[in-house]
Every structure is written in C-alpha cells, then in structure tokens.
Amino acid sequence: MSEVMLSLEKVHYDLGGVHGLKEKSKTYIRLLETLQRLPSNIYEFAIKNILFVDASSKTIPLNQLKALKKKYVIILEKNISNFGIAHEIAHAKLNHKAFWESSLEQEDEADKLAESWGFKHE
Q1: Mean per-residue pLDDT over the chain, rounded
Q2: pTM for this predicted structure
Q3: How many other CB atoms sit within 10 Å of the CB of residue 54?
Q4: Do the beta carbons of residue 21 and residue 54 sit within 8 Å?
Q5: What is the 3 state secondary structure string of the chain?
Q6: Mean pLDDT, to the nearest integer, of 37-57?
Q7: Interval 75-88: pLDDT, tens
Q8: 10 Å Cβ neighbour count for 113?
C-alpha cells in the first residue's frame, strides 16, 4: 500500500518556516518537495527535530532551537539538490556527528539511507 503524498501547502504549514529562507525561493520549494517525498515516519522526524537554515544567514538561531525544541540544524546551500537535502536529513536520522566530524563511512550511510527513500544521487 502506497502512502498518500502530502500537498506542498501542508508541508509548508507543518514546517512552520525556515530561518532566513524566502518562501518563494527555489531552495525553499526544493525543501518542501523533498519533505513531501519522504516516508511518513521520516517526514515526522524531520518536522519535529530539524531546524532548516538558509546558508546565507549570518547566524544560526540557537534560541529557535530551544524554543522549537529542535535537536538538529541543517544549513541549506542555495543550489542544494533534493538528494542533498534528503542526505542531510539522513545524517540527522542516523544521529551522525557534526559535518566537521563526519567520516566517509557516515557519508556512505547517509547516501544509502537517502537512496532507500527514493532519492537518486546526482
């Protein structure tokens, strides 16, 4: 039985905003589309646990992490692909260390998990 795909409007509502990212930007739309395609349990995990931040933001809003009870931050570069977003969500789901502490093994694990969700490595 296949899951019902959420509308982009529903994903936007559930997400509740992205620090520093304009809602009409290509990156924001790509984020919504990526979240929309995730398995429902991963979607719920991402909405509940991840604060998405635009890379051009000057600061990461740590007060929002606490207020929104978010455990992870994903910094979205301007041209990040759907696979790239899914890959970063996979790192969070796998509870990997910060990017400066990651290993090739962790990168492979995140790639495989993102691929298992239907995203193709570009």
Answers
A1: 86
A2: 0.86
A3: 18
A4: yes
A5: CCCCCCCHHHHHHHHCCCECCCCCCHHHHHHHHHHHHCCHHHHHHHHHHEEEEECCCCCCCHHHHHHCCCCEEEEECCCCCHHHHHHHHHHHHCCCCCHHHCCHHHHHHHHHHHHHCCCCCC
A6: 91
A7: 899 899 999 999 99
A8: 18
